[in-house]
Fold this protein.
Amino acid sequence: MRKPLVAAVFALAVAGAGAAPAVAAPDAKDAAAPTLQAVNLAGTVALSNCSGSVIRFPNSMDTDPALVLSNGHCLTSGFPEPGEVLTNQASSRTFGLLNSSGTRVATLRASKLAYATMTDTDVSIYQLTSTYATIKNSYGISALTVQDTHPTAGTAITVASGYWKRLYSCNVDGFVYRLKEGDWTWKDSVRYTSACQTIGGTSGSPVIDQSTGKVVAVNNTGNEDGESCTVNNPCEVDTSGNVTVRQGINYAQETYQIPACFTTGNQLNLSASACTLPKP
């Protein structure tokens, strides 16, 4: 998770912006290299304590209720316990919708918390009272599409924080078999190269592939003090149980497995044959 509330308030005072965060393009060298896009803040949202984004899946329809992606540790009710999975809970949480320049153009409202957990991954998905078509027609903002295939090491990415209205660009450095932080363990996490120095309040930011513009992960944590496996100091554990600590390095949780768990009308279906998300 990112910086706790007290540290975040101090950072806020220095920056002079927003509410307190949670407790919680290289040049192409040749023709074969992917064409990199200028990622911006359109479609990102600011939560009361974190960042997020309006997302859709490859099979989502414009008439479907829109969804917001953030972290499980960004819930207003506190961190889910290890093994805890929340589904289809009533919610009226609000989100500040940003345009490409980071200007807040609307306040969106949830109708429910569709899914949230901090087990194996760190994710929350809210269903909104607005459809994709309504958001597009009213504010000119399109949802970000979640890629349904595993991200690739070396990919140029941008972490887009709606809370801070800031972009962090780096590359996928690799993948972590198990990432442990306090009582929680996450599987197959994304490790950034050192250029992405994310801070408190960036939790829940979409991690966007610069070549496709699609969401490949959700930003969630970093090792701040060099401690091993403690809160705000995640450690890497390999298949043999060896532990590695990388102070100053930040991480995200993959999102490619999420689309298979949502069916017609953007409705959660954890019983779908291809769905591998943790279940209650």
User: Anything to note?
Assistant: The chain has two domains: 5-18+147-254, 44-146.
